[in-house]
Amino acid sequence: SGRDPYIEMAALALDKPAAGITPRERQIMGKVPTLASLYRISPRGLQEYAWREFQIDWDFKTAEHLWQTFYRAWPEIKAWHDREERILHLRGWTWSALGRKRRLPDALHDGKSRHEAINSGINMPIQSLAWDIALAATTIASNMFARSDTFVVGTVHDAILAEAPETDLLWAEGVLRWSFDAALVRLRPLGLRLVPGLLKVKTTAGPWSSTLSPAEYLRQNRSSAAVDDFERLLDSLV
Q1: What distance in Å separates the CA atoms of residue 33 and residue 14, rounded to the nearest whole number?
Q2: For the whole prediction, is pTM greater than 0.90?
Q3: For a tag site, which of 101, 128, 174, 176 has the least CB within 10 Å?
């Protein structure tokens, strides 16, 4: 539907209109608690996760507020967690949309190890699929870049990191976007079927954690010859 769950979460947590949410608020008050809660976490676990992974120093009251806000907004997620826990406890394994199977025998037994296994079982089908799509897109993009000065230099979870001359930046962006669409086609023989429009690809340029699109990056670096190419492209589109 084109909605942004991170913006919606941040707006609810901060009690402000979605249109007024800043990129930083979207990241900290929206994305961090949403991703943590999606894979089932306690308020205390959310507090520890935010500090360990992002150095966000929430007190327990704030973490609990975010946790409660998430599950009030999307109660069906809690129902999904409960269903998956029952299934994992009965069979001790799970699988992804591509048929990757992960055995979690600790889910069959009670105790702390069962809790960890259940959480892994809830996480695996989504994270595994995201990685398979990103890996397929990486190989496609690498082949497209083979005769250029643009290179794939790494991956982070479901993100591809590439280095490109500024003069090739917009072309490289197009290749990366196309590669994810092509990955969905390449994985169809393995059984992948996604609702059209479900996968959204976001591209940024600049240092890690930059929120600038390639076009915005070029506008802010007007000394580059790439800006002229970019403006000529805009003129041709108009």
Answers
A1: 13
A2: no
A3: 101
The 3-state DSSP class for residue 211 equals coil
Contact in structure between 97 and 129 (CB atoms under 8 Å): yes
Residue 98 phi/psi, 5° resolution? Answer: -95, 5
Residues present in the chain in total: 238
What 3-state DSSP class applies to 71? Answer: helix
d(CA 176, CA 138): 8
As separate numbers, helices (DSSP H) first and strands (DSSP E) second, the chain gives 10, 4
pLDDT tens per residue across span 145-187: 998 999 999 998 888 999 999 899 999 999 999 999 999 999 9
- Determine which helix (DSSP H) or strand (DSSP E) holds 162, and give its type and residue range: strand 159-163
Dist CA 230 CA 226 (whole Å): 6
* Listed residue (100, 97, 120) closest to 40, CA to CA: 120
- pLDDT tens-digit series, residues 196-225: 777 888 899 998 778 889 999 988 886 555
Query: Could you tell me what percentage of the chain is helix, strand and coil, using 3-state DSSP and rounding each to the nearest 5?
Result: 65, 5, 30
